[in-house]
Amino acid sequence: MRRLTPEERRRETQGWRESIVQAFIRVEDAVHAGLGTLLAAIALVPLVAVAVGLLYTVQVSFREQALVPEPFLIVGLIAAIRRLLVLTAEFARFLEKGGGAFQGAMLELGLLTVMIVALVGSLVSLRRRPSHAVADRAGAIETPEASV
């Protein structure tokens, strides 16, 4: 059996190394593609949840034949909190951009905070009133039409 020269050994080893590197690159690309798809799907879940909640609220309102504001306020509150969380998660990016981007983000953060407080205040005040007030109001709206 013939002994390999150092140059031949190096070429043979280099071929194996190259194939192992190519295999790792393919696996890495597959993992990145899979994670990107997974993150895109996860990003759609809150949007679908808000849409389903809104459609359910409209369905309940039509079934009850009275427009009840609480479910709409809850959907708005969820959307505002979601945007607030996304904005705070991107905070470092706004700091890197500096200037106008940071000021715009801070303005949006302040407006979202005011909106969340207003929505919570509206929900609290609606929960404190009697539940039959909505039905009475709905009956009062239908009464003029019935008399015409």
Key traits:
mainly alpha, 148 residues, 90% helix, 0% strand
Descriptive account of the structure:
There is one protein chain. The protein is an all-alpha fold and 148 residues long. The protein folds into two domains: 7-65; 66-139. 90% of the residues lie in helices and 0% in strands. It has five helices and no strands. It has helices at 6-64, 69-89, 91-97, 99-128, 132-147. Helix 3 (91-97) runs antiparallel to helix 4 (99-128). The model is unreliable at 140-148 (pLDDT under 50).
Radius of gyration from CA coordinates: 30 Å
Taking all residues together, what is the mean pLDDT?
80
Overall helicity: over 70%
Specify the overall morphology.
Answer: elongated
How are helices and strands ordered from N to C? HHHHH
Number of helical regions: 5
- Taken as a percent bin, the fraction of beta residues is under 5%
For the report, how would you describe the main beta sheet? none
Cα-to-Cα separation, first versus last residue: 110 Å
Q: Uncertain runs with pLDDT below 50, 5 residues or more?
A: 140-148
Oligomeric state of the chains present here: single chain
The count of strands amounts to: 0
Determine the structural class based on helices, strands and strand pairing: mainly alpha
Write down the domain tally.
2
Q: What is the strand and helix layout of this fold?
A:
Elements: H1 6-64, H2 69-89, H3 91-97, H4 99-128, H5 132-147
Helix pairs in contact: 1-2, 2-4, 3-4
Entry summary:
The chain folds into two domains: 7-65; 66-139. 90% of the residues lie in helices and 0% in strands.
